Amino acid sequence: MKHTLKKEGKYSYLEVGEGTPIIILHGLMGGLSNFDGVIDYFPQHGYKIVFPELPLYTNNILKTNVKAFAKFVKDFIDFKGFDKVILLGNSLGGHIALYHTKLHPEKMAGLILTGSSGLYENAMGDSYPRRGDYEFIKKKAEDVFYDPAIATKEIVDDVFETVNDRIKLIKTLTIAKSAIRHNMAKDLPEMTTPTCLIWGANDKVTPPHVATEFNELLPNSSLYWIEKCGHAAMMEQPEIFNDMMFEWLKKNNL
After folding, report:
1. Which of 11, 14, 39, 153 is the most buried (most CB within 10 A)?
2. How does pLDDT run across 66-112, given as a tens digit for each residue?
3. Which among 29, 30, 22, 70 has a CA at the least distance from the CA of 47?
4. pTM of the entire structure?
């Protein structure tokens, strides 16, 4: 389903449904379409889905980091007047959600992470990005998924365009360095927000051991595995992802 974003002030966002707000935070190369399954499912089950566009490439370089993006999320929550929210983050979005949770636990009803960074950074790889090398970018995009066919030409073209835009490339590398700098290992044991970890068993970007470590360090977490699934579980196995997420929400009375 095609969704259109509304613009209010400095925010561009999608809002669907009524009920407890679930705010979706996308990853570095991610976007709205990655979460189509979640956006279509949860408004039918008593939740408000809110998807703000993160200012990954529009902030000035000094505010292109995990901490600044977490502040953006807090400001957006205040702007919308939400009391408590559930944050759902994939990859970098998960890391931003974690950092926000660390700074503002009072705003958090729950946290859902899938393929989240924050403990282990392999999103860029040692040789990434090689500008101008379409086949290399295509292989990198395919590695995100268990089934490489999910990396459509549209997805590959989008990543290729990003790494060949000099400003976006500089900001991509700045964000990647910020993610490494903001390692959350020491913070996690203090974070008591109910947390759901849904992980692809074949994730090459944030491998299974990362999920296990998150689960060991977080005092109030539940870990769910999806077989034959890579880094973007909500995109590759949307029905299983939604079932697991809904089961966890009900179990935690959220």
Report:
1. 39
2. 999 999 999 999 999 999 999 999 999 999 999 999 999 999 999 99
3. 22
4. 0.94
What would the two tokens of residue 51 be?
């998807």
Do residues 113 and 94 lie in contact, with contact meaning Cβ atoms separated by under 8 Å? yes
- Using DSSP, state whether 22 is helix, strand or coil: strand
Q: Give 28: exposed, middle or buried? Use CB within 10 Å, 0-12, 13-18, 19+.
A: buried
Structure tokens at 105: 């636990």
Q: What contacts 24+ positions apart, CB below 8 Å, involve 155-158?
A: 158/29, 158/31
Query: 1: closest CA among 54, 76, 51?
Result: 51
Q: Tell me which H or E stretch contains 100.
A: helix 92-103
Q: How far, in Å, are 70, 99, 178 from residue 66 at the CA level?
A: 6, 7, 6
User: Where does residue 39 rank: exposed (0-12), middle (13-18), buried (19+ CB within 10 A)?
Assistant: buried
Q: Which amino acid is at 74?
A: K
Strands (E), the chain: 6-8, 11-16, 20-25, 47-52, 85-90, 108-114, 195-200, 221-226
Q: Look at the chain and count its residues.
A: 254
Any idea what the Cα angle at residue 196 is, between residues 192 and 198, rounded to 5°? 150
The string of pLDDT tens digits covering residues 145-164 is 999 999 999 999 998 898 88
Structural tokens at position 30:
């991610």
**Token pair for 69:** 């993006």
Does domain 6-120+183-251 match CATH 3.40.50.1820?
Answer: yes
